Amino acid sequence: MALVKKRYSILLVLALSLFSLLAFVPFGSSANPVAIRMTMDAGHAFAFILLSGLLYLAVEPRGRWKAVMITTIISMLLIAVVEWVQPYVGRTASLADMQIGLLGALIAISGMIVWRNLRHWQLRVAHGVLTVMVLSWVVLPVWNEWRALWLREQQFPVLGDFEHTLEQQLWKATGVALGQRTQITFSDQHVVSGAHSLKVETVNGSWSGVRYAAGDQNWQGYRALSISLYNPGEEFNMNIRIDDGVIHAAQYSERYNGRFQIRSGQNTLLIPLEKIAEGPRNRSLELGRIRKMTLFLNKNEQPQLFYLDNIHLVP
Asked: Which of 18, 60, 86, 273 shows a CA-CA span of 20 to 30 A to 198?
């Protein structure tokens, strides 16, 4: 029994070491930060299934209920400490991480009780089914995020044609004012290509618009960026910002910034990539590592409604 306990203790130390590496080492700037963050968030569930399970097995010789109590207390403390320390090492504390970690610990502890101490097969089946359902709920958003990145690669040099629901993972609304958020939805109106366009409803304030996650795309070898935009209202001005992956959180002078007059009706914006590359003041924008593109209105401009479609690079 002592040998078995020692084996579980060694495995627990190894698992804690690996978890510390993943939890506390900053990952720096990522081409796909949302996918990485969501993957790390979901990983908390699996990490605490493993850690809490090994901890229970290591202290189980002290008695079943003592093991449950010790495992619960230490798991909760570990979850809290991890989120408290992360901001000091370049990571971000998250209530969602704590909740998912607690969920993993609960799965592990309840599993140890059901599978090691109870003989009712109905409870084991129920626990197994619930575990699969819960983990599927945790993993599904991450799976869809990575599928969206795959779709992005498959449809390039098209950046947005809005024919697949996964594109909602790539195009995100930006801007909040007085509790109201910019709204984006797929629409069958004012379509240029395919069956759908992207309907954008901005709000008054906070640089309202829509952002495309390019993920360090290579735009080299293309002549221009083409954007089809339908404006059902009066004329207004729109800003287009394009960042590369060279500088994280680029300032105004370190990225491409364009301002365009949007007429009433159908508009086609054709922006030469040579001009985009000349955007930064003291360097050339790295067209081989385009990180994101944002279409937005100036702060405190009147709300606007417009439709985007057939956004692509022109060979």
From this structure: 273
pLDDT at 155 over 90: yes
d(CA 58, CA 54) in angstroms, rounded, equals 6
Residue 23: predicted pLDDT: 67
Q: Within 13 Å of residue 292, how many CA atoms lie on the same side as its CB? A: 21
Give the residue numbers spanning the domain of 12. Answer: 2-154
Residue 312 to residue 308: CA distance in whole angstroms:
11
pLDDT score for 306:
97
Number of domains in the chain: 2
pTM (two decimals): 0.83
Residue 202: which CATH number?
2.60.120.430
pLDDT at 42 over 50: yes
Does the CA dihedral 266-148-128-83 come out positive or negative? negative
Using alpha carbons, select from 49, 39, 22, 38 the residue that is nearest to residue 132. Answer: 49
Distance CA(304)–CA(170), nearest Å, equals: 21
**Distance in angstroms (rounded) separating the CA atoms of residues 296 and 313:** 20
Q: Are 144 and 71 in a shared domain?
A: yes
Establish whether the linkage from the previous residue to 157 is cis, with ω within 30° of 0: yes
Q: In this model, does residue 24 exceed pLDDT 90?
A: no
φ and ψ of 264, to 5 deg? -70, 135
Q: CA-CA distances (angstroms) from residue 90 to 24, 85, 93, 142, 163?
A: 8, 9, 10, 22, 38
Q: How far apart are CA 225 and CA 271, in angstroms?
A: 5
Rounded CA-CA distance 79/262 in Å is 50
Task: Report the amino acid identity of residue 60.
Answer: E
Same domain, 220 and 144: no
Taking CA atoms, 112 is separated from 2, 40, 107, in Å, by 19, 25, 9
Assess whether 181 and 142 both reside in one domain: no
Shared-domain flag, residues 162 and 302: yes
Residues 135 and 178 in one domain: no
